[in-house]
């Protein structure tokens, strides 16, 4: 049986829906995942404020309704247009997925293909075990691996808004 967005709205707990197939997003992420998610949020918010990029906003998991049978909740998104519904229904400018054992395959393949097909300019895959960030940039309709480290990288969004977040700050080096 295939499910749709109306079904999804009735479910308790955290779910994603991919091509009509539900995926439970539990158990909750491990502490290191949450620390990295929080640090990424801070790094991107700080970078946007530093260049006074007011149109772009950082969101932690919100519903991204790709279509009636696919609803995703990326770990972090940057959106550069107003969201006028209870969910995002257009492609964000950047998506981040933090790998966990239960989601790694889906993040690296299924979601990779969805985000690429939706035309999302940047896709970051964060490997907390190896403390590595893969940065993919959409070029000619396909993702190209630009960097696989936390070295400086500049992201360009709408209206010439360019940020260079300090991704090294994501890892707790103490």
Question: Can you describe this structure?
Answer:
- The structure is a single chain.
- With 174 residues, the chain is an alpha+beta fold.
- The protein has a single domain, classed as tt1808, chain A (Alpha-Beta Complex).
- The protein is 22% helix and 30% strand.
- The chain is built from three helices and twelve strands; from the N terminus they run αββαβββββαβββββ.
- The protein has helices at residues 5-8, 31-50, 104-117; strands spanning 15-18, 21-24, 57-59, 64-67, 70-72, 76-79, 94-98, 122-127, 132-139, 142-148, 155-156, 162-163.
- The strands form four sheets. It has a six-stranded mixed sheet, sandwiched between helices.
- The longest helix has 20 residues, at 31-50.
Give a short overview:
This protein has 174 residues and is an alpha+beta fold.
Topology at a glance:
Elements: H1 5-8, E1 15-18, E2 21-24, H2 31-50, E3 57-59, E4 64-67, E5 70-72, E6 76-79, E7 94-98, H3 104-117, E8 122-127, E9 132-139, E10 142-148, E11 155-156, E12 162-163
Parallel strand pairs: 7-8
Antiparallel strand pairs: 1-2, 3-6, 4-5, 6-7, 8-9, 9-10, 11-12
CATH domain topology: tt1808, chain A
CATH superfamily: tt1808, chain A
Order of helices and strands: HEEHEEEEEHEEEEE
N→C terminal distance: 49 Å
Mean pLDDT: 93
Q: Given the structure, what is the number of helices? A: 3
Uncertain runs are none
Query: What's the number of extended β-strand segments?
Result: 12
Strand residues, percent: 25-35%
Structural class: alpha+beta
* CATH class call: Alpha Beta
Tell me the major beta sheet: 6 strands, mixed
The CATH architecture name reads Alpha-Beta Complex
Tertiary shape: globular
Radius of gyration: 16 Å
What's the structural domain tally?
Answer: 1
User: Roughly what percent helix?
Assistant: 10-25%
Lateral arrangement of strands in the main beta sheet: 3-6-7-8-9-10
